[in-house]
Each structure stands twice: as C-alpha cells, then as structure tokens.
Amino acid sequence: MLVVLVVIAVVVFLAVAGSGGYFLVTRRRPGPGAEAPPSLRQAPARPATPGRPPAAPARPVRPARPEVEAGPEEGQEEGEGAPAGAVPDLATPPAPPPAPAKPARTDAGPAPQLLDKPRFRDRLGRARELLATQLSGFRGRSKLDQQAWDELEEALILADVGVKTATDLLGQLKQRAREDSLTTPGQLVGALRDQLVGRLEGDRELHRAEAGATTVWLFVGVNGVGKTTTIGKVAMQERASGRKAVMAAGDTFRAAAADQLQLWSERTGAGFVRGNEGGDPGAVVFDAVQHASARGIPLVLADTAGRLHTKVNLMEELKKVRRVADRPPGSVTEVLLVIDATTGQNGLVQARQFTEAVGVTGVVLTKLDGTAKGGIAVAIAGELGIPIKLVGLGEGPEDLVGFDAEEFVDALLPKETAA
Ligand code: GDP
C-alpha cells in the first residue's frame, strides 16, 4: 500500500513539475547531439542520495522532495521577493540534499580570449575634432580679453559640458590666470586640461564584497542606453580574467532583454537566471544570488528594467530590487548607472532621478565612440558628483574600459596642442 502511495505521489509531483513556471537557466544549451551538461531545466540523473538508506531493490527510485535551491521565500518580507506561487520552484528539478559544493555548472571551460582593449585616443576622434574646431577661434586670439573668454565658454558648452559646469570651469580658470599670470590662450588650454582632469578624478574601483558574501553589481538606466551590452562585456572580461559570474535578467518587463542577456551568457559562459515575463524582478535577483552562492560564484551582474513611462513605479521597483539583492549572502557593492553619451544633457536629467532613488555608486558611460560631445563626461562627474567607472567605446566585448581621467582628457585635448 505504502509503495502504491509513494508511486502515485511521484507521478503527481512529476506532472506538476513539468508544468512550467519560474526557472533558472544555466549557460549553454547543448547543441543537437551534444551531451547535455547538467542544467537546472533538465532533471540531472540523480546520484544516490548520501545519508539516505538505499531504496529497496524492486521499488521505483524515490525522488527527493524538491528543495528550494534558490528560493526567494526564505526570510522574505511581505510583498517582496517571489511572485505568488513561484516557489517551491517546481520547474526546477529536485536539488540534491544540502550540497557538498557541486562543481559549478557555469564553468564554460577555457576563458574567452579578448582582443586588446581600445584606447580613448583611438575612439574619441569625433569628440576631439569637435573640441579642436570649437577651440580654434579661441586659440587664435592674441590676448585673453572678454571675447576670448566668451569663445572658450561657447566651445565648452558646445562640447556638452553643460552651462553650469562651463561657468564653474571658467571661474576657476580666470582665478588661475590671475594667480599664475597666464596671458595666452595656449597657456589657458593647458590650465583647462588640469581642471578637467581634477574634476574627472574619483574612485574608479569596482568594489567587491567581503569573502563569504556574494557581490552584486546592479545595472540601472533607461532602455536602450546599453545596460545589457555592458553586463555582457563585464561578464566577458571577468571570465577572461578567470572569474565566474551569474547574470540576473531583472528586466522582467521585456522578454527581449532577457533573451539578449541569455545570448551574452551563452557567449561568455556566465550563469544565467531569469523569471517569467512580468514577474517580480526582486525574486530573479534573489534567486541569482542564491544560485551563485550555492556554487561559490562570487559575482552577480543584475540587469534591471528601464522603462521611463512608469517612472515612479520603476524607481520604487528598483529600490526594492536593491533591498532584496542586499540580503545576505548578497551584498550590493555597486549600483552602476548606465548613461548613453549620445543623449547629451538628457542623460543628466535621467541620472538625477536614478541617483535619488537607488544611491548610484558609479556611472558607465556608453557609446562615447559614437558622439562628438565628449564633454558630457565632465558634466556627469561635475554635476552629479558620481565617478565614471567604466566607458563603452564600441559594441564588441572588449570595448569596455576602465575610466582614466588623464587618458580621457588627453584624447579630447591632446597635450601637444595645449602648449
Ligand atoms: P539596454 O536597453 O540598456 O539593455 O541597451 P542594450 O544593451 O540593448 O544596447 C542598446 C544598443 O546600444 C545596442 O545596439 C548596443 O550594441 C549598443 N551599444 C551599447 N554600448 C555601446 C557602446 O559603448 N558603443 C556603441 N557604439 N554601441 C553600444
């Protein structure tokens, strides 16, 4: 009788488990004919459960009760975390009993080889040309009269440093000109270089959590700025440096965003966690942290939604995602605001909203290769007081570089022309 009941229970469980729902996906699906790697979507052939008495010979194998491997319900506050009915995670096959650390399923074999990273100087040609053209009138002046100052101000504004920053810069330059007795436009461009470098300096480090915690880097910003691409590039670079990462598809609003991120995960060998379309993004990030933590993977790269038409909800949602991601073992050490350099001063307005809502720790300035208005970097650093940590210089995986104030300013205003 007991045996019959157990068999019925197993059949019912398997039927429910196959019905879909919230799921975790690890990297790489096997190609046709390839041997399937262990995946959370497919029930792996389960090893004999350690510590349990072996099943009686002629009995069907008894599957373990599904254990919630990455269950958002643990320690969950009301109204946060998993969507109703998402856990226990029935779409995830039963996990082994409290894990003796499994070999990480996200190991994609050899680390990808990246091409050399681009240099600012090579990718900021358009911005350099614009600034050079704008400054040519100023440089041609024989003395620093009011007209010369006006021309300099105009050049800075046209390069997109913003009116406020341009005015500040000019004030400081006038003082410096007085103190150091600068009299020629060439000398002043040299002083401008120093001012720009000073304003752009800042904490460039991407911080990681203490040992034992899972670092979470949240990527926020409006749609289209390059969040997904940046996460892909970061994952690629982490892998190339021999480190593993898990991506969390926290933009549950757009299935295409999760699909795009999944492609990057397959390309980079990073782990990948996604939820249902319209599901709770906090739950996805929470699951990603659990997934990473259970496998000793130190870093979660979390994408978030960026729809602007529901701004208030979006900001509330982001705050919640941040709170959930910060629950141990998760530790949010970076909230990176991705800004598209080609959107100019608009990017700054968006940046303020995100900064107020989620405490941005750094900026990723994308598409600098595609804009002539490199001055936006100065406006961001100056007006928001947030350091630019990474810069996108193209669409390839290697086209993401750490920000370097000196190199950046040199690319815009080469030293040799500042004499
Ligand atoms: P998301 O909506 O914020 O996730 O934006 P995506 O990551 O989908 O990027 C939007 C578009 O910008 C894509 O076509 C990317 O290839 C492109 N993109 C992202 N970063 C850069 C960059 O640094 N340079 C250039 N030229 N294109 C970029």
Feature tags:
binds guanosine-5'-diphosphate; 419 residues; nine-stranded mixed β-sheet; alpha/beta; 13 helices
In brief, what are we looking at here?
Helix 4 packs antiparallel against helix 5 and helix 10 (311-325) packs across helix 11 (345-358). Strands 1-4-3-5-2-6-7-8-9 form a nine-stranded mixed sheet, with helices on both faces.
What does this structure look like?
The chain has 419 residues and is an alpha/beta fold. Helices cover 40% and strands 12% of the residues. The chain has 13 helices and 9 strands. It has helices at 2-17, 120-123, 125-139, 146-158, 163-179, 185-200, 227-240, 255-268, 281-294, 311-325, 345-358, 376-384, 405-412, and strands spanning 23-25, 214-220, 246-250, 271-274, 299-304, 330-340, 362-366, 388-392, 400-402. A 9-stranded mixed β-sheet has the order 1-4-3-5-2-6-7-8-9, with helices on both faces. A hairpin with a 7-residue loop joins strand 8 and strand 9. Helix 3 (125-139) packs antiparallel against helix 4, helix 7 runs parallel beside helix 8 and helix 11 runs parallel beside helix 12. The longest helix is centred in the middle third of the chain and has 17 residues, at 163-179. The model is unreliable at 12-23 and 25-105 (pLDDT under 50). Guanosine-5'-diphosphate binds at residues 221, 223-229, 257, 260, 306, 366-367, 369-370, 392-395, 399.
